Amino acid sequence: MKTLVTGGAGYIGSVTTRLLLEAGHEVTVYDSLAQGHRAAVSDGARLIVADLGDADRLDRAFRAGRFEAVLHFAGLIRVPESVEDPARYFDHNVARGINLLNACARHDVGRFVFSSTAAVYGAPDKVPITEDAPLLPASPYGDTKRVFEELLLSYERACGLRTARLRYFNVCGAHAGLGEDHRPESHLIPLILFAALGREREFHIFGDDYDTRDGTCVRDYLHVADLGRAHLLALDALDRGGLLYNLGSGAGYTVREVFAAAEEVLGRKLPCKVSPRRPGDPPALIASSARIERELGWRREKDDIKQMIADAWEFHRAHPTGYPD
Ligand SMILES: NC(=O)c1ccc[n+]([C@@H]2O[C@H](COP(=O)([O-])OP(=O)(O)OC[C@H]3O[C@@H](n4cnc5c(N)ncnc54)[C@H](O)[C@@H]3O)[C@@H](O)[C@H]2O)c1
Q1: Best substitution site from 88, 90, 94, 115 to test ligand 1's pocket, by max atoms within 8 Å of Cβ?
Q2: Per the residue annotation, which of 11, 30, 121, 141 is the catalytic one?
Q3: What distance in angstroms lies between residue 75's CA and the mean position of ligand 1's atoms?
Q4: Which of 247, 263, 270, 268 is nearest to 305 (CA)?
Q5: pLDDT over 80 (residue 37)
Q6: Residues within 6 Å of ligand 1 by CB
Q7: What global pTM score does this model have?
Q8: Exposed e or buried b for every residue in 131-151, given b needs 16+ CB within 10 A?
Q9: What percent of the chain has pLDDT over 70?
Q10: DSSP class of residue 44?
Q11: How many A from CA of 31 to the centre of ligand 1?
């Protein structure tokens, strides 16, 4: 399939691009490189360095590429930044995304897979979270994703686009030499590994007085390769539209448990400090992924948190200061 991957030079997009190429897709990556890395784009994929804000460039890419499918990973991803500057988040994650949807409509693209997030649920009362839980985002970031999900349904009705909305929980690990290199980094496992590499003085646990088994927040960690494989399944299933799936492991680990697992994987003690809670961090976020397992037969191959950390560590050891740019 001729497939466009927006944000394909970023963490999840680069891994999924690799999997698409291995599955025989013809892949074009569209990425501004504002956050992504040229070195993360696999040989075999064509790279267009441009922003989604450039509607003319998008149009030309669609005319030349004759895409049958779009996987949309591009976007801004930091919750605290979205609280400080919500307009920027609505601009990038919604307004520029509309350029992409309009290009899909103009060029008769049939299939569209969107990277949504657990942040659309806010702080839910019930875990594991199922897809029909109320959408109550607690940040502008989550709100931009909720709004874009709504837009997808409107474009389905108006333009015949068939869409899959995939709500990811905490993504981690590395695959085929491709890993996580956000600048600045805000995700838990890389930050633990940065403390191991001396890139951070210590790892901060934000709050140890939550109502959880050891007082620290519980999150659901999913290996990036398992997430990438879910995209390929969703793409294949888009003969019909309206797909909506949570993607997590269904297991929750506390911050302290992940930290202890990292110490075990690395075989040494790591520096750590307890800091106050961050506003808006819910105590527990755990996905129910039963629907995609049942409907598309998705199975995780890398469920063990130590395996996820070991894969991430391999990437960070090979790239102690990140990808070369
Ligand atoms: N990483 C996670 O744990 C996680 C969890 C839930 C949802 N998500 C979603 O998954 C997607 C990918 O996340 P990631 O961790 O790979 O992020 P990332 O920052 O590594 O990748 C995003 C990529 O999009 C590009 N980009 C951003 N805005 C652009 C624009 N306007 N035009 C062109 N390119 C642009 C960046 O340069 C970057 O390469 C995001 O949409 C994010 O909201 C990620």
Answers
A1: 115
A2: 141
A3: 5
A4: 263
A5: yes
A6: 7, 9-13, 31-36, 51-53, 73-75, 77, 92, 96, 115, 117, 168, 170-171, 182
A7: 0.97
A8: bebebebbbbbbbbbbebbeb
A9: 100
A10: T
A11: 10
141 is catalytic: yes
Helix (H, G, I), strand (E, B) or coil at 219: strand
The domains found in the chain, sorted by start residue, are 2-172+221-247 (3.40.50.720), 188-220+250-318 (3.90.25.10)
Report residue 52's pLDDT band, with 50, 70 and 90 as the boundaries: very high
Q: How far apart are CA 19 and CA 323, in angstroms?
A: 20
How far apart are the CA of 222 and the centre of ligand 1, in A?
Answer: 16
Q: 113, 238 in Cβ contact below 8 A?
A: yes
Distance of CA 173 to the CA centre of its chain: 12
Residue pLDDT, tens place only, 277-311: 988 788 999 999 999 999 999 999 999 999 999 99
Q: What spacing in Å lies between the alpha carbon of 69 and ligand 1's midpoint?
A: 18
> What count of residues does the chain have?
325
